[in-house]
UniProtKB/TrEMBL annotation:
It comes from Zingiber officinale (Ginger). This is NAD-dependent epimerase/dehydratase domain-containing protein. InterPro entries: Epimerase_deHydtase. Residues 91-379 form the NAD-dependent epimerase/dehydratase domain. Transmembrane segments: none annotated. The lineage of its organism: Eukaryota, Viridiplantae, Streptophyta, Embryophyta, Tracheophyta. Belongs to the NAD(P)-dependent epimerase/dehydratase family.
Amino acid sequence: MAHFAIAHCNMNSFPATKTFVRSTGSCSAICRYSLPFQIDSCSRKILRSRKVRQQNLSIVRATAAPMNQEVEKSLLSGSLQSDPFSKSKKVMIIGGDGYCGWATALHLSNKGYEVAIVDNLVRRLFDHQLGIDSLTPISSIQNRIQRWKSITGKNIQLYIGDICEFEFLAEAFKAFEPESVVHFGEQRSAPYSMIDRSRAVYTQHNNVIGTLNVLFAIKEFSPECHLVKLGTMGEYGTPNIDIEEGYITITHNGRTDTLPYPKQASSFYHLSKVHDSHNIAFTCKAWGIQATDLNQGVVYGVRTDETEMHEELYNRFDYDGVFGTALNRFCVQAAVGHPLTVYGKGGQTRGYLDIRDTVQCVELAIANPAKQGEFRVFNQFTEQFSVNDLANLVTTVGKKLGLDVQTMNVPNPRVEAEEHYYNAKHTKLIELGLQPHLLSDSLLDSLLNFAIKYKDRVDTTQIMPTVSWKKIGVKPQSVTSR
Ligand code: NAD
Ligand code: USQ
């Protein structure tokens, strides 16, 4: 059995930044929350009533116990079972309680990697603050990890804390000694970053400082460690030329150079990723850090082989107007009979991928690391769709399931091109062996059926977008009271 050392943080009396250090036997934990704004009394009540303070906002380090080798053997998939290198490799997953991070943590653990999750659970706090919830019921991170251990015999270590607090991150690095760090741990919603000034500042502070701290931790404690950082296709924007993978060769006034591809991000969130990329590229040059920037497209789906093993392992599935992403939202909308919310003309085209491919791509990046000093960029998506394409696909498959799917054109709350050229390269991960799960009728069918199964949990008042790119101001906004 894993055992836990728990130091409780009382959020009610918690100033915005305060450091706690607590040691219990062999386990120690350090935490400093730096929240963008005070928790209002309503959130406090919810936190209290759901015992979140006790269950989720505590600092926990689960100490690894010896693995159950028999169970492990029987569950490891054939290909990696015979690879002794991958079995010993230690991977730290920052943001491992989130949508992409949880699926990846289980996948890598199942493949024989030694996994540690680092997360401050702030994503769960956003849900409470905004009054939103995942379509799927999700267990606490502690229960998730215990259930994984009981099913597979595998340990996942857990470090709860904020990576913007360097002391905490340093302790986690020294204790776990990662060989790879997969960094998912950021505020990832474009609309959230456009709610008001405080969320814009929070997003850029959290993402840019968190990533800087990871870079310093690698330099100081694990200089050989490979950083796999989740970037976004949105860093490139929608240029009127083909999008390359990270770099473009330009001839200007008779001279030629290969330069970082131009960045034209379109939200304070997407801009935070651009800043991250620049900081990582600089430290690769200056300190010899080895890094892979995965410019990921929009992710859809919810099931992976591992999350399917038990309800307590289910992943989150966001459908609300702040954290929900296009295709996932459309499936839930179709399931509850809400018209599909196409913003503006619907010609906005992006790269998309199945969450099963997210975990595959990260595994490929870890198994084929960048060289020392290399800043490598992969465009991580499998297919391009416009918003109208997605609406048409969901309508067609929904009708086959007997759903009456309608579409509405919502005035676009964002500032973005609605009709544009889009052709992004995405060959490097395929060359490494990615076998894409393309969006087919059967996948959409199963996603829609999944949404139908949980449709009683849908709060339809959370579906329409509430955040406007143009109306953002300095006045703190409460999304629920609008
Ligand atoms: P998510 O919000 O579900 O998960 C992010 C996790 O990071 C959460 O568990 C959160 O608590 C944690 N976190 C945030 N700030 C932290 C901090 N300072 N310290 C410790 N933990 C922190 O997001 P996701 O959808 O899983 O996205 C993961 C990453 O992938 C993000 O970097 C995002 O930008 C990128 N990405 C996501 C998508 C998508 O469609 N979901 C697409 C492209 C790129
Ligand atoms: N859109 C609609 N209707 C909706 C929701 C979205 O028309 O109900 C449109 C948006 O206007 C946008 C496109 O669909 O043009 C994609 O929006 P999204 O909300 O699905 O995705 P986005 O805001 O771009 O962000 C998501 C993730 C983010 C990640 C990004 C990858 O939240 O973390 O970085 O996808 S990318 O889009 O490639 O930048």
